[in-house]
Amino acid sequence: MRRIAVSGYYGFGNAGDEAILAAMIEGLRELVPDVRFTVISGDPACTARVHGVEAVPRADVAGVVRALAGSDLLLSGGGSLLQDVTSQRNIPYYLGLVALARALGKPVMLYAQGVGPVSGAAGRWLIRRVCNAVQQITVRDEESLAALREMGVVHPPVEVTADASLALEPAAGFEGREALRAEGADPDRRPLVGLALRSWREGADPAALARLADALVEDLGAQVCFVAMQSPEDEAMARAVLARMSRPGGVLLRGSDNPRELLALVGALDAVIGMRLHALIFAALTGVPLLGLSYDPKVDNFLRALGWEEALAVGQAPVERVVARVRSFLERRGELKDLLARRVAPLRERARRNNELAAGLLAHPSFHSSTS
Q1: Which is nearest to 242 in space by CA: 262, 222, 266, 224?
Q2: What span, in angstroms and rounded, lies between the C-alpha atoms of 116 and 126?
Q3: Which terminal residue of the chain, N or C, has fewer Cβ atoms less than 10 Å from its own Cβ?
Q4: Best CA proximity match to 96, nearest among 130, 137, 132
Q5: Residues with Cβ < 8 Å from 131, sequence gap 6 or more?
Q6: Do residues 185 and 192 touch, judged by C-beta distance below 8 A?
């Protein structure tokens, strides 16, 4: 039996990160049937229940050390761990775990990481110092590779793959349209437009977003379905927009803590407008036309890799332009579904590559002895 410790932003109600974890676990279990996982989590009970793994609290220092000491490999990632925009603590925390694993003699793979932005000199130094001592790095886009190279990470093999969640499959037997009906949506009589919002320091103005939602209802006859990818933060943002809408036609989807079920639910929508990266990824995976509202380079990077229309900047997206794009999506739904299937296929293969490389590290322990 082989044991993998996993470090990431898990157990915090973020559907995108939970999708990454689900795809990681599912893919590696296919390749290494006897693998066992211990996930360092903000909510170990939830992580264990949803993913069927062992989990240890992030704050349990002794438990984390035991998990790393008892592992054959640490996977750090995926997601946007190595950035200092959301918190100055991100880089020291996640790379501290990497350094601890290396001090214990454990191999480490930085798994499907999205790197940057990194503005602080200390964070850049830590990335250069610690990442050069790991055994394998995969990043989810070319921009992350360029960021690592610019910060001086040159030693381990680095491969551009794709966000790990792109390998996820919808939950078997979960009917997305029925789930939407249960949430109060009406998929039989009008188009459903998903709106996946988050609060942000600049541009995420509930009043402006309410005007957009009203226009979707009035001009397209749509029902606006607010998709909360992170609870409870996104729900609060959705409620703020709903409270400012002047027209009926909005519904807040409670969603699911199971990322495969949420993927199926998003797949039952007719179009998705999203600030949240993984709402856009879920739409692309299920063939739902998507429009990005960019607040972070990762949104632009994904749309570029997909070969899709560029995102509109949050706070600078004219309502008329957004409505025109969504109208085009609805008119060309079948054509765009086929186009997305073709565009997503190579990204899915690249996402699966993350697990192939991780399985290779488990299978070749002699490779683990390399250091910087």
Answers
A1: 224
A2: 13
A3: N
A4: 130
A5: 95, 98, 110, 137, 148, 153, 156
A6: yes
Of 199, 229, 369, 210, the C-alpha closest to 295 is 199
Spatial neighbors of 88 by CB under 8 A, at least 6 apart, are 120, 123
In the predicted model, is pLDDT for residue 61 greater than 80?
yes
Residue 371: pLDDT band with limits 50, 70, 90: very low
Count of C-beta atoms within a 10 Å radius of residue 27: 21
> Cα separation of 183 and 227, whole Å?
11
Cross-strand bridge partners of residue 226 = 195, 252
Scanning 32-60, the segments in alpha helix (DSSP H) are: 44-51
CA 180/CA 176 separation, integer angstroms: 6
> C-alpha distances in angstroms, 160 versus 115, 146, 316?
12, 10, 31
Residue with the bigger pLDDT between 157 and 53: it is 53
Query: Within 13 A of 56's CA, how many CA atoms are on the CB side?
Result: 19
- Enter the tokens of residue 295: 């607040």
CA-to-CA distance for 323 and 250, rounded, in angstroms? 16
Joined together, the tokens standing for residue 177 give 């349209």
The tokens for 267 are: 């797949």
Query: How far apart, in whole angstroms, are the C-alpha atoms of residue 161 and residue 365?
Result: 23
* Total-model pTM: 0.94
Q: In the predicted model, what is the mean pLDDT of residues 331-345? A: 97
Structure tokens at 302: 């994904």
Residues 6+ apart with CB under 8 A from 354: 24, 27, 78, 111, 112, 138, 161, 162, 164, 167
Alpha carbon dihedral 249, 254, 256, 261, in 10-degree steps, equals -10
Q: How far apart are CA 53 and CA 30, in angstroms?
A: 15
Compute the distance between CA of residue 36 and CA of residue 66 in angstroms, rounded to an integer: 15
Contact assessment for residue 291 and residue 274, using Cβ atoms and an 8 Å cutoff: yes
Residues comprising the chain, all counted? 372
Amino acid 370: pLDDT: 40
